[in-house]
Design the sequence.
């Protein structure tokens, strides 16, 4: 008799490989395998390299479970089912900084370099196959491994270039932020676009001749050839796993050398140029510390407008996991470098404009879930954010409060700072706006809007007299 779990929910982004399907049941992350994929899993689990990657935490925790427990979409039993560890917060490559994408790329190459001598390769090369435990990348697509065969090119090379290597080249060589490019196209940046960007003297920059121009030329040459014809040509030319391994090592050396073009922005130096006094900062830190300790330990904290991560670090002392969101890629890269150096596993820094958060994308708009669908936190920190949204981005104050409250799970807590219109930072923003446009931007109206959506527990005015902190329970 088969006893099945009925609360199965299929992952919307798991449909491109018919032999593998990720789904959720009872809070568990599972992967159903058809017969061919199950055979490959058995060989993978018995290999020397894969258990070592698991033990080192470079591949997400994976173990087999009883397949009969779980129904399939077509009623045909799974040949095998794997249970994966749950990643604390799912993010997308267009939410990562340069350093994050580079480290994720290097991990992908390291895994491929370990797999090839053992007779395996990866059939995918997508940046979406990696996630994060804090500031440490982890490979999650166990179903991507398959046997390697001489004469066959790396099937994931095009994906790898489009979602990993090309974005890095774009930022390193042209000083262009890659995040909008990846967000606009779920399959990444195609070679044809890269060729147009890297013409003239730019075509000689590191990595460009081989991975942009030669890659594009080979794709055009083989556009009408079948896969078997291309493989036959490679075998005739003597292409082997040893050559593939040498190519991976060359790409690794290239990626390690890439650095983002120097970027100096207002936000990189914000902590030095902002108007907080030592007293203000100390009072604010005390308020945040008490708010985090007051009540159940939050599983997930969102720090919106995290800047250098000062308050995210405080939150990490009291929470299971912290997602630190900041708009400026250079600031996030600095924060990531600091967290990585400290082996931080409970703070995930992300690049995101809070006035334009990541939408749903890919097939039917749900293949990659939008930020608001992923981010329902037990506690939200919104410190020195409201004035930037309400004044800087012309978002109505009521909608700002609505959005902050919506980021909290039911009964979640909100810690929010209101910067008064006479504060130097608010005056700086108002100076570029038409007079009278923000007549409703004042402390009394903010307090009224917050009280209509939340139960305010504490309210403290900072020593400067132009900033007020609130601790509230959403829907309370």
Sequence:
């Amino acid at each position: 008799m088969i006893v099945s779990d009925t609360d199965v929910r299929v992952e919307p982004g798991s449909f491109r490989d018919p032999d593998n399907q990720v789904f959720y049941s009872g809070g568990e992350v599972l992967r159903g395998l058809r017969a061919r994929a199950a055979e490959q899993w058995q060989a993978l689990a018995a290999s020397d390299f894969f258990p070592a990657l698991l033990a080192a935490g470079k591949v997400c925790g994976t173990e087999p479970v009883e397949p009969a427990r779980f129904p399939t979409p077509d009623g045909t039993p799974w040949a095998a089912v794997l249970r994966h560890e749950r990643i604390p917060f799912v993010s997308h490559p267009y939410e990562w900084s340069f350093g994050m994408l580079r480290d994720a790329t290097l991990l992908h190459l390291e895994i491929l370099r370990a797999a090839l001598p053992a007779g395996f390769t990866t059939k995918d090369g997508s940046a979406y196959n990696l996630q994060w435990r804090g500031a440490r990348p982890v490979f999650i697509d166990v179903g991507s491994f398959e046997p390697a065969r001489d004469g066959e090119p790396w099937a994931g090379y095009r994906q790898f270039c489009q979602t990993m290597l090309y974005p890095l080249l774009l930022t390193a060589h042209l000083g262009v932020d890659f995040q909008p490019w990846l967000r606009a196209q779920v399959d990444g940046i195609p070679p044809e676009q890269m060729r147009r960007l890297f013409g003239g003297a730019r075509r000689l920059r590191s990595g460009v001749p081989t991975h942009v121009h030669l890659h594009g030329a080979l794709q055009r040459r083989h556009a009408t050839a079948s896969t078997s014809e291309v493989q036959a040509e490679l075998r005739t030319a003597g292409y082997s796993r040893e050559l593939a391994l040498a190519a991976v090592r060359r790409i690794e050396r290239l990626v390690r050398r890439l650095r983002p073009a120097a970027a100096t922005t207002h936000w990189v130096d914000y902590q030095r140029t902002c108007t907080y006094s030592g007293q203000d900062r100390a009072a604010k830190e005390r308020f945040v510390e008490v708010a985090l300790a007051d009540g159940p330990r939050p599983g997930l904290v969102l720090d919106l407008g995290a800047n250098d991560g000062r308050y995210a670090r405080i939150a990490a002392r009291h929470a299971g996991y912290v997602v630190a969101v900041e708009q400026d890629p250079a600031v996030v890269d600095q924060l990531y470098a600091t967290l990585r150096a400290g082996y931080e596993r409970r703070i995930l820094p992300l690049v995101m404009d809070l006035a334009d958060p990541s939408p749903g994308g890919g097939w039917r708009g749900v293949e990659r879930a939008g930020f608001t669908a992923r981010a329902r936190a037990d506690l939200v920190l919104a410190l020195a954010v409201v004035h930037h949204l309400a004044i800087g981005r012309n978002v109505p104050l009521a909608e700002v409060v609505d959005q902050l409250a919506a980021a909290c799970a039911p009964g979640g807590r909100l810690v929010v700072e209101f910067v008064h219109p006479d504060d130097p930072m608010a005056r700086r923003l108002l100076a570029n706006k038409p007079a009278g446009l923000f007549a409703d931007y004042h402390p009394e109206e903010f307090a009224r809007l917050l009280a209509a959506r939340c139960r305010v527990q504490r309210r403290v005015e900072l020593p400067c007299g132009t900033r007020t902190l609130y601790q509230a329970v959403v829907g309370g």
User: Anything to note?
Assistant: The chain has a mean pLDDT of 91. The two ends are 47 Å apart (CA to CA). The longest strand covers residues 408-419.
